[in-house]
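Exercise 7. Given the encoded structure of a 77-residue chain, write a plausible sequence.
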């Protein structure tokens, strides 16, 4: 699973960071559709204290999930 690690001295969730990365990821994968099932992917950023947002994806199949997660990983690197 992809994760975003950020500076977070107080250990509290940061909605602004979540919103920013949600927009970035959304823009990057919005055009992607599973070739087999013709569906797009859904994702959510889930905070884990003290300083991580995990990118949780829900896809129609493991193959497409893996393609999209690779794309997200490249974007975040
Ligand atoms: Zn699929």
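Solution.
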């Amino acid at each position: 699973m992809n994760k975003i690690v950020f500076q977070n001295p107080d250990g509290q969730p940061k909605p602004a960071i979540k919103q920013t990365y949600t927009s970035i990821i959304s823009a990057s994968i919005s055009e992607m559709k599973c070739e087999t099932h013709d569906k797009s992917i859904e994702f959510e950023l889930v905070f884990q204290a003290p300083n991580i947002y995990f990118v949780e994806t829900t896809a129609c199949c493991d193959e497409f999930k893996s393609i999209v997660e690779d794309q997200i990983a490249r974007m975040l690197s």
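Remark. The chain has two helices and three strands. Students should compare their own answers with the one above.
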